[in-house]
């Protein structure tokens, strides 16, 4: 079933941009801004929970997709925990008040100190490889079996999607124990037999560009393995299957396709046993929860032509849309054109390039795109950038991280019933100040090299 048109969220987005201009959050002196639709985040969280209704599921959000404490706190309020992959991400989850039992710690490079902290705190850990498991053995001896849920990440090696760098389940992926390698499965079964406290099995077949059927194949491989292990040890030792995240996002329109319910339908067809109540499921979705809930607004500083090409020079480029600029075929974004008051421009489309502020020629977020003619003082909106774009800043040209605000839109009583009303903003992150840019650029050591004499 296709989702109803996402026009409600598009209308909220336009209202938020208009209000952000009115309130001076974006414009000539605040040339780039991230905006997040709080109602949209809640809707996405509820859609996820509804899709898995009927089975015991613990949902976590992949923190790297929006490493912003207020976002994690909002999701936590909706019952969604945190999947973390570094001490920084764990600190953010803790600062957001996410309880330990809702946190999952994955990473291919956990240090002994990080493992110790997680296990001592009761945070679930998914080991990536045999060497890491040996470290965990020592810590479990120290803290006691059952100190925290422990799982093993396996790579079902089901193949690649359309974006190589996003495909975690290829034959040679760096993640997890490669199940189809010679002897690997037997080793995994033995590893569980030797560790009665290891109760989880983890796989993550993602991400953008991977077909749902392939993702489901990855989950099936993990499920089949869990069944085999439980049969061999003679009890349901593995009681929790962590199926990862990775649901791709549609960047072509406002439609939410595929939705969580479609993925769950395919999972039910492919792996019916997953839903028969014997396993608790853990999920780790990132992009699919947040991408459509955020956008970047940027001021158009100048317009020009070069060799016959019409170019709008804006303040959103590689510093905020790094993947789009460096890999435009894999990460195209829709761009909206708005006038200086933040109203959508509706004039006839003209072919234009939309450039960013960075000093290299390839800093374009759209090439040869048909858009209403942009003028200096206008705004462009980069849609569907609520996941990864706010949290994956590129410090090129010492450009500061922009502010991020969340918005909600109230209702007013109109002649024909309730009509959309005032937009209210709440800060998620301040724009980085020049002092902060200086601090992370060694300003406190200004004279250190000059003073270093031989
Ligand atoms: C990145 C990641 C996710 C989330 O991926 P999305 O494509 O954003 O849903 C989940 N689990 C692990 C282990 C990851 O590395």
Automatic annotation (TrEMBL):
Residues 41-290 form the Orn/DAP/Arg decarboxylase 2 N-terminal domain. InterPro entries: Ala_racemase/Decarboxylase_C, De-COase2_C, De-COase2_CS, De-COase2_N, Orn/DAP/Arg_de-COase, Orn_de-COase, PLP-binding_barrel. It comes from the Bacteria. Transmembrane segments: none annotated. Keywords: Pyridoxal phosphate. This is Diaminopimelate decarboxylase. SUPFAM superfamilies: Alanine racemase C-terminal domain-like, PLP-binding barrel. Residues 292-386 form the Orn/DAP/Arg decarboxylase 2 C-terminal domain. The keyword Signal does not apply. Belongs to the Orn/Lys/Arg decarboxylase class-II family. Its cofactor is pyridoxal 5'-phosphate.
């Amino acid at each position: 079933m296709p989702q109803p048109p996402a026009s409600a969220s598009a209308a909220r987005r336009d209202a938020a941009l208009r209000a952000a201009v009115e309130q001076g959050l974006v414009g000539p002196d605040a040339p780039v801004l991230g905006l997040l639709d709080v109602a949209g985040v809640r809707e996405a969280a509820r859609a996820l929970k509804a899709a898995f209704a009927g089975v015991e599921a613990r949902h976590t959000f992949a923190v790297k997709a929006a490493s912003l404490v207020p976002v994690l706190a909002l999701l936590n309020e909706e019952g969604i925990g945190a999947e973390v992959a570094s001490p920084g991400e764990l600190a953010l989850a803790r600062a957001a008040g996410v309880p330990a039992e809702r946190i999952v710690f994955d990473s291919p490079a956990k240090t002994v100190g990080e493992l110790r902290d997680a296990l001592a705190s009761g945070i679930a850990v998914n080991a990536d490889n045999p060497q890491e498991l040996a470290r965990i053995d020592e810590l479990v001896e120290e803290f006691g079996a059952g100190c925290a849920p422990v799982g093993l990440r396996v790579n079902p090696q089901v193949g690649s999607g359309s974006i190589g760098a996003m495909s975690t389940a290829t034959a040679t992926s760096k993640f997890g124990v490669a199940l189809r390698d010679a002897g690997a499965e037997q080793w995994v079964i033995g590893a569980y037999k030797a560790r009665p406290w290891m109760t989880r099995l983890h796989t993550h077949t993602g991400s953008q560009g991977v077909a749902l059927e392939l993702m489901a194949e990855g989950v099936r491989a993990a499920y089949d393995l869990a069944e085999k292990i439980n049969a061999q040890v003679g009890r349901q030792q593995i009681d929790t299957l962590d199926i990862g995240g990775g649901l791709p996002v549609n960047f072509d329109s406002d439609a939410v396709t595929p939705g969580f319910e479609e993925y769950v339908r395919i999972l039910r067809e492919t792996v019916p046993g997953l839903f028969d109540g014997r396993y608790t499921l853990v999920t780790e979705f990132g992009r699919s929860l947040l991408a459509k809930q955020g956008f970047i607004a940027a001021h158009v500083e100048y317009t020009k032509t070069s060799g016959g090409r019409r170019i709008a020079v804006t303040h959103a480029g590689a510093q905020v849309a790094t993947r789009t600029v460096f890999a435009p075929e894999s990460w195209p974004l829709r761009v909206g054109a708005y006038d200086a008051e933040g109203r959508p421009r509706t004039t006839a489309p003209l072919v234009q390039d939309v450039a960013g502020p960075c000093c290299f020629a390839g800093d374009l977020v759209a090439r040869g795109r048909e858009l209403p003619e942009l003028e200096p003082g206008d705004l462009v909106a980069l849609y569907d950038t609520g996941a990864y774009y706010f949290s994956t800043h590129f410090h090129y040209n010492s450009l500061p991280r922009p502010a991020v605000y969340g918005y909600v839109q109230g209702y007013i009583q109109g002649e024909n019933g309730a009509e959309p009303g005032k937009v209210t903003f709440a800060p998620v992150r301040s724009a980085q100040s020049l002092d902060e840019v200086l601090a992370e650029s060694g300003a406190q050591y200004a004279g250190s090299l000059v003073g270093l004499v031989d």
